[in-house]
Amino acid sequence: MVEQTRFEAGSQALADIDGAGGQAVVDSLQDIAPDLGRWIVEFAFGDIYTRTAISSQQRELVTLGSLVTQGDTAPQLTVHIQGALNVGLSQEQVVEAILQCVPYVGFPRVINAIHVARTVFTKPARRAV
Amino acid sequence: MVEQTRFEAGSQALADIDGAGGQAVVDSLQDIAPDLGRWIVEFAFGDIYTRTAISSQQRELVTLGSLVTQGDTAPQLTVHIQGALNVGLSQEQVVEAILQCVPYVGFPRVINAIHVARTVFTKPARRAV
Amino acid sequence: MVEQTRFEAGSQALADIDGAGGQAVVDSLQDIAPDLGRWIVEFAFGDIYTRTAISSQQRELVTLGSLVTQGDTAPQLTVHIQGALNVGLSQEQVVEAILQCVPYVGFPRVINAIHVARTVFTKPARRAV
Amino acid sequence: MVEQTRFEAGSQALADIDGAGGQAVVDSLQDIAPDLGRWIVEFAFGDIYTRTAISSQQRELVTLGSLVTQGDTAPQLTVHIQGALNVGLSQEQVVEAILQCVPYVGFPRVINAIHVARTVFTKPARRAV
Amino acid sequence: MVEQTRFEAGSQALADIDGAGGQAVVDSLQDIAPDLGRWIVEFAFGDIYTRTAISSQQRELVTLGSLVTQGDTAPQLTVHIQGALNVGLSQEQVVEAILQCVPYVGFPRVINAIHVARTVFTKPARRAV
Amino acid sequence: MVEQTRFEAGSQALADIDGAGGQAVVDSLQDIAPDLGRWIVEFAFGDIYTRTAISSQQRELVTLGSLVTQGDTAPQLTVHIQGALNVGLSQEQVVEAILQCVPYVGFPRVINAIHVARTVFTKPARRAV
């Protein structure tokens, strides 16, 4: 049951935090690398996101800092900017978190991330039904 | 007076958040690039850290995500891990924030950052007097 | 007046160096993160580009080296390749500056930047009117 | 004759390993930076790929690790994923090599590379005639 | 038992491939982030290294490409250069794998990695007893 | 004779630009990867630095932008900051070139590079005899 529990716990965390966008990432890997999708659920979300030392909002803030800095992560920023909104951060707070990266990675990465944020903010919300 | 206000506001924010470690960074630049130190105070801390859309704790979480991800930032991680403690995050929360980066940047960056955290946690607190 | 002077000086430097492309970047941020656009003008261009220890041509050469190396910076390379031409570097010199990065970052970053350069070189010049 | 030999040896290695995709990269640089294309042939392929201490399959595995990690390298990954197939690695092995990067660079870089692999795997093979 | 099996399988793979150096990394995390060490064993080695689509030699070649490229990974390169030797690659092949990165990331990363390789090659082998 | 010419031309360029520091890099590779040192001379310096579309000063400015941005390049920055001085840039201009990177890569990379510059500026000049 343990393995199932990791997958189940991860699936729940993925749904709670990243919502439909997170599941879409996992689904997109089914045809070519299904284990990669499973590891995202079991390891990233089952092992890590379920821990309680920091909140989901705090996790998304760290994640935004990481993704903005790394670059070439527009698809992941799209998921996690939506994720940040899903866990209760406001659009203003998401923008501010991205701006906080200016002193550490400079303007180009931040400008690119802000344009991703606009796209997330302005698209119609994805619905499950 | 405006320029002075940016410097003053930044100096206060730098002292409140990064404490002696932040001031040490600025001081270390006086002999060779004093304007660089001034920009850190005026721009990073005066213009950005003083904004209120997110809290100092939230800023430090974003910053940890950024610095862990960027790599070759041990001196800056040292300052901002201490800064995270200064604004009220616990050692456990700092460790957890660093661990949150594993899915996004892998183990090497995270292992290196954890060893920086240990050094910060175990050194005697710097005192002004 | 000081703050205004930084903005004014930065606006002038931005116009002189990056031209319409630089202003377009600032304008593109007005709806979502106007302060980010303001910081580009005041800090990057007002505080830094106005300094005289190196010339605008020298600044653009450093900037090309930085942007080519960083990766995921095609929009910024577009602006600064045009900026390099605006301050008097020739197309041949811009290409050569990009080629100079091969020993330091390898072929992929350089090939990608060369393709951006082609796009800049072949598009009709943007006009203000 | 030596210089010719480097170019000839490199052209042969480029054709053997990266096939039409590699030649297309070189050709794409002819109008703007022909020496860049020549260096790829002479230096990367003539000087390096012709060495025998490791096999072409081993070279492509190292190269996949490098390109996945670097990010913003989709065009180069496209060429070298095809190259890996050209030298006899299976689609399953290419996917596995990309997955091997998860512990070292995290999920975003790997997910992006997997989507490039799918594109390479599903497109009709390029033919010379 | 499943969870135990992942840990056990990972411990075996870690011992087989990275040897004492890999275990030393895990041990070094016990006091501050023991779960991080556990994830390296269970996820990196238990879930990934145990897969059979590519060999251990092939995994280490991909890993070398990744670590050389990422930079700021001297401790990890130290472990995996030794790991590459442990799984049967020769010193000459390890050097060649590092040199293969020159066209993709340039000379600085490769030079730094070569100096790490020298340190690994010349130190007395670590023994368990 | 052609191959010899590339090596000779590269050796001269290396000596003219990076001086003893450049030769020391090449020498440091003789025991473990002599071809890597040869490629630096033949390819980087023989093929590229000898071109005349931009000056040696301009090449060093691009190189500084690249190395500051890449990170984990302190040894290379040491050589090229000295190289920049060798080709006639002043200490003030080198500092300014490094500061020019702040808007593009943020403060950490720039602070680290400034400390490398101080070390270069304050060490006694290396002499051949």
From TrEMBL, chains A, B, C, D, E, F:
Protein name in the entry: Carboxymuconolactone decarboxylase
One Pfam short name: CMD
Gene3D superfamilies: AhpD-like
SUPFAM superfamilies per record: AhpD-like
InterPro entries from the UniProt entry: 4CMD/NDH-1_regulator, AhpD-like, CMD-like
PANTHER family: 4-CARBOXYMUCONOLACTONE DECARBOXYLASE FAMILY PROTEIN, CARBOXYMUCONOLACTONE DECARBOXYLASE-LIKE DOMAIN-CONTAINING PROTEIN
Top-rank lineage group of the source organism: Bacteria
Domain Carboxymuconolactone decarboxylase-like: 34-118
